[in-house]
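User: Predict the complex.
Assistant: Input components as received:
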Amino acid sequence: MLSVAHISKHFGSLHALNDVSFDVHDGEIMGLIGQNGAGKSTTFHSILNFLKFDGAITWNGQPLSADDYNQIGYLPEERSLMSKLTITQQIVYLARLKNQPANVIKPKINDWMQRFAVKGQPTDKINKLSKGNQQKVQLICTLIHEPQLIILDEPFSGLDPVNADLLKQAIVAAKQRGAAIIFSSHDMSNVEEICDTLVMLRNGEVVLNGTVDGVRDQFGRTRLFLTTDWSAEQLSTLAGVDSVTAIGPNHYRLKLTNADAGPAIFDAVTKGHYIQEFSQQPPTLDEIFRTEAGGVDHE
Amino acid sequence: MNKTWIVTSETYLRQAKSWSFLMLILMPFLFIGLTFGITYVATPSKDKSDIAVISQDASLRQSFLKTSGVQTTSKYQTVNAAQDATKKSDINGYIVLKTKNNRQVSTVFHGPNEIASGDQAKIQRFLSHLQTQLNVQTAKLTTKQTQALAVQPSFKQQLQKKTASDKAAKTISFYILVFFVYLILTTYSSITAQEIAAEKGTKIMEVIFSSTTPRKYFNGKVYGVLLMIVTQLLVYLLGGALIVQLAQHSRLTANMWSQYAPIIGKVLHNLLSINMIFALAAVLLYTVVSAFCGALVTRVEDASKASQPVIYLNLLTFAMAMAFQGSPTSGIVTVFSYIPFFSSYLMPLRLINGTATMGAAVLSLIILLATVVGSMWYIGKIYGGLMLQTDELGFWGNLKRGLSLK
């Protein structure tokens, strides 16, 4: 388990991180979300010991040792490889730095290239690959030594939906073998889809921390999806309705001032009859991100 | 496996397999080979430099052919044949050997050009010896008288230490050493700074530093470059030994070799001594500082600029060595011969000229090596911060931010 406890980091007068704490358990995927400059990369850099920081970061209860770094797979935000090396040379070199013998890694390369559908041969030079394929090779470098702690900084950035799915499968597979995984993302659908927990940072501080459903439920079931022959004007007159948005013919999304208003609205709209849809939900992560990450309600 | 060694071997193999490194190593040999080849082609063949010997006296002719030491040919036995061969430029000319009344030796050289001075001396020596024999016979001297006349004056040279050949050897040693050190420092400073600056620009460092410590990585890079330099030196030593063998036995260079063997020996002695350790230590220090300069650059495009401070420093020390090469006893040379960066040029200058003791050299070397170790330790400590600092803040800003990260 990775435990980040009360870490702070200042760059001059800038408070990059302020008392940040969270845990990532084995076999768990944590999404680290926040706006640009919120402190996500600084958090990763602190875990990787790139920076001096105040606070404590432990792995299985101990400060991270040199040997523990062999168990880490890290994908930085900006992708980069050694362009003059071949795919095999690059993967083997980085794996050797993780204490993996070349003869153990080499036989796995073809399998991983197939898994990520890399177009090219292991003997191809990195600079001959397309940008997308270079990105996939870097993902292979991050995962091929089967690390126990995986840190992915914006891993879905630049990937098309097909390749994003391949990456999700790899992340879930790593989770199933017991790895603790943290990734940052601006795409809340990816977080919602595969994360068990999430931490949201705003200006270097943790503003949300918990399971994905738990975090959403914190905001109450104030989103109501409704299919009815009522008009938007009629719906907006109901008690507890803050706003009404038409999202299709006879299909509306209502924002409630209070989740407790739901039963009364149900009674008013159905009048004891069947209606096609009445679904009261918490806000989506995307909505929460918009309202919480920047500290401003964008709606 | 030790991660420092992994970085060392990767750095070394990547560079050693590159064409630029191969060319860097082979260029001097290609140049020497080319010069040798051109000289070989341009030099007349063996027969053309020969001299024919014509004489009525067969034993006299044989004696000259065998003992004169002149490059001769026995192919032509008559004046007409020798004349024809000379006209066709098959031979350099011919000499006609005669003895008048068995009392006086006379010899005439016939040829298009004057005979070489070395050959003239050899012919003169042969003739003098022969004439002495004839004189003894003519004078009908007893054995005792002959022996008495055979006594030769004694001439010995009691040379002072600073002979002309010593001075030439020192000058040659100095120039070879200074230019060699200058070129090798410039080359490897540039390679190191650019490679590290390029790496920093690609951000691969974050991945690498998530696997090994910046110190181990930095040390590995420096050792990798050092291995390249050692490889280059070994190739030069082996190649040099081969060239010495060739030069000693090739007809083009054998004479020159034997003539200059003492000077060449002294030059080699001056080079293959503690001076070589100064050169290696200097390369190590410049490599470390170059890595530091490379780590301060923030953009790949600026990689070529990274080595400039080190190149200029090397140029300054080189210029100083050249300026003071004629005055190795100067106080400035003495002081600077203990200061790292300068000592690599100036202490060898003093050693070559015999103005520094071995104790002074060892002290200077200890200071230089301590500086190398100290710089490696300190730059290894701040290397991570420097390499991960990628904001464009200028030289001092980059340094300040880099130092604050770790």
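DSSP finds ten helices and 14 strands in chain A.
Let me know if you want any component modeled separately.
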